[in-house]
Specification:
This protein is 33% helix and 23% strand. The protein is an alpha/beta fold and 300 residues long. The chain has a nine-stranded mixed β-sheet with strand order 5-4-1-6-11-8-12-10-9. Strands 2-3 form a two-stranded antiparallel ribbon. It is globular. It starts with 6 loop residues before the first strand and ends with a helix.
Length: 300
């Protein structure tokens, strides 16, 4: 019987300083995008990819994330009594087979440290890591993860990492991968040869940036334990991936397809763009948003 990946990790412990003052007392992962918080979109993507055990790594002042994914029998009873089927459907993410677990990163020690906190949760299983402040958009947002998990099994990989093409003058903002291909093809595995976290301008090995989705074998945790902190004292996930590569482990990149888009809710410009796109696409209220935008277009 084919082994299926069932465990997912959502790191959501970042301070969100680029979104102050909105994130002073409110996690950036809980900012609304359309009718749902950012992390809600991420969880729905994981559920659609049949990932049923979900560990969310939180931090200080992020209790609202736990509350959002906690069952609320009193609220459900009120809605049932009122016959409000639409709102009950909106809370369907609390039902079904998904199980939510939480642990806290007490101080900001980097993405690698946050993932390492999931070692006991994952055990000897393969797992998915999906950043809690990044949404994958498209007609079927879970298609990317399903393809990544299938490739992970087929290639017996140590890791499969989603990547996207970014403008060459913006590579310094991202983790950038080097691949053993001249022309990357969306949907096809790309053998990685290196990865660099936020390379200086002009020296990036490619314009392929890590796109907030990973599939890992358990070996990622031993690599993280061997990884040294950076100059800020943080443990970088990209440094651990680099150790896997140097040990000869097979690590692959998978480029987003043209119909897929990563929305990084990390600053106000990207957050506003994300909210507008999802509001316009909303199945209930999108037409009203389009109508409003058209009505003010001449004044813009």
């Amino acid at each position: 019987m084919e082994h299926s990946i069932r465990k997912a990790i959502i790191p959501a412990a970042g301070l969100g300083t680029r979104l102050l003052p909105a994130t002073k007392s409110h996690p950036k992962e809980m900012l609304p995008v359309g009718r749902k918080p950012v992390v809600h979109h991420v969880v729905e993507e994981l559920q659609a990819a049949d990932l049923r055990q979900i560990l969310i790594i939180t931090g200080r002042r992020k209790r609202s994330i736990e509350d959002h994914f906690d069952a609320d029998p009193q609220l459900m009873a009120v809605l049932e009594e009122a016959g409000n089927e639409r709102l009950l459907d909106d809370l369907a993410y609390l039902e079904g087979e998904s199980r939510f677990f939480f642990t806290r990163q007490s101080s900001p020690k980097g993405l690698g440290h946050a993932v390492l906190l999931a070692k006991d949760f994952v055990g000897d299983d393969d797992c998915v890591v999906a950043l809690g402040d990044s949404i994958i958009g498209g007609g079927d947002p879970a298609a990317l993860l399903r393809r990544m998990m299938a490739l992970h099994r087929e290639l017996d990989a140590a890791a499969v990492i989603a990547v996207e093409q970014v403008p060459p003058d913006e590579t310094f903002r991202y983790g950038i991968v080097a691949i053993d291909e001249d022309e990357p093809v969306p949907g096809q595995p790309l053998l990685m040869t290196d990865v660099v976290e936020k390379p200086p301008r002009g020296v990036a090995p490619s314009n392929l940036a890590i796109a907030a989705r990973y599939v890992f074998a358990p070996s990622i945790f031993s690599a993280l334990e061997r990884t040294l902190p950076d100059r800020r004292g943080e443990l970088q996930l990209t440094d651990a991936i680099r150790l896997l590569l140097r040990a000869g482990e097979p690590v692959y990149a998978l480029m987003l397809s043209p119909e897929q888009k990563r929305y990084d809710v990390g600053n106000f410009e990207s957050y506003f763009q994300t909210f507008i796109d999802f509001a316009l696409a909303d199945e209930r209220y999108g037409y009203l948003v389009r109508k409003y935008i058209k009505s003010i277009a001449y004044d813009l």
